[in-house]
């Protein structure tokens, strides 16, 4: 792979908690200038304010005091000057709104812009309204990277030329996950993720409850935190499932991997939220597959791209609690089938969804743009 000079722009100062962005920063070959904190970045990777760097500080203080109405314009000029000095070959913008904010910079400097969509940025009604459906971005970006086939269809419907849209799924470090033994594990299920609307933890619980009523030896561990945690805890209390359901909170990676290894299957009932928010391709699904356990989930976003129903796990439609409950019972009662599906899932990840596959795929896209 060719080493490129790339400006990587991520809106979140804590991007190191976003595995996919951290991988881009650390593993793409070449020299990178990493800018962060806002769609139009305010800081360097180390937290230093762009406006505070030598040569800008005194001038920008005067602008801030005397020309507040021009602050965005001067901020844009500062970012443009900074990128010009670095002399990159291209800009990689993480998330759609970041791409829209960096488009004037790239246009001014004649740089190709690659925009990497991740999920909510491609679908959220609120974001699409704020961004005017990315009308300029879809036409002017040199490449648009998506992580699910559904997202691919979405950005094309927003006006992106098909030939500039590239599907490149996330990848994981498979070697970090030792395979479990779902065929010999107890009928214990694991759910991982934030307690938010699009992950629908209350529907995962509702499906598990129906299965538990048929077999009260079933167990569920839910890992994560979020605004829906307390309602989910109350659901469990109201139905007397306190001994069957564990709320484990946020756990270190090693403990998450350990829970997966000891489970019969992974379970997640992802749905489209009220604001049309979608998942990308959930990393927890790929991690469960890497652990060698089957996936019980919905046909949502990128999940059916990586999980073939009946081969790597069992899928159902969104909101179909009865079907998910039946899938839980099916694998609870058939450990041999769970073992076969888990092994197939591990092989699928090794063949298609490793971190190497993902980084090499993204690098080919970047090289194609520069070429």
Kindly describe this structure:
The chain is an alpha/beta fold. 43% of the residues are buried. It is elongated, with a radius of gyration of 22 Å. It has helices at 19-27, 57-66, 71-86, 96-109, 120-123, 125-130, 135-140, 149-157, 201-214, 229-238, 253-261, 283-290, 303-306, 321-332, 335-352, 355-370, and strands spanning 4-10, 30-36, 43-44, 90-94, 113-116, 143-146, 165-167, 188-192, 219-223, 245-249, 265-268, 295-298, 313-316. The longest helix is centred in the last third of the chain and has 18 residues, at 335-352. Helix content is 44%, strand content 16%. The strands form two sheets. The protein has a seven-stranded mixed sheet with strand order 3-2-1-4-5-6-7, sandwiched between helices. The protein folds into two domains: 4-171 and 355-370, Rossmann fold; 174-352, Glycogen Phosphorylase B (Rossmann fold).
